[in-house]
Amino acid sequence: MDLKFTRTTCPYCGCGCEMLLETMDGKLVGTLPSKTNPMNQGKLCIKGWNVHEFVQSPNRLTKPLIRKNGELQEASWDEALDFAASRLKEIKDAHGGDSLAFLTSAKCTNEENYLFQKFCRVGFGTNNIDHCARL
Known about the structure:
3-stranded antiparallel sheet
């Protein structure tokens, strides 16, 4: 049995809570709060305690899906990105930028979320942007 702990920062929000990811035989199996980090002082929110669970979840999507004939079907990344881009352009051209809204993830860094909101405001002309970091 090979048990290891890796110190890292929680990916869910911008607070900077530190945690230890527990791996056993190369598989992520648990999360512990860092007792020495001044931000979280040995505590974690419910998202932090469960951060390891999504990594090996059997429900995690690993390939893009596109709805065809009413059913989701696997697609290549190129096909999925081309489809998304063409539909977004079509909606913006028909109804204007404010007909679109964008949601990003708290698992992204603050910098990634900043770039995303900039992309939406400049590229699509909308301020309809949100993220789930505060949930």
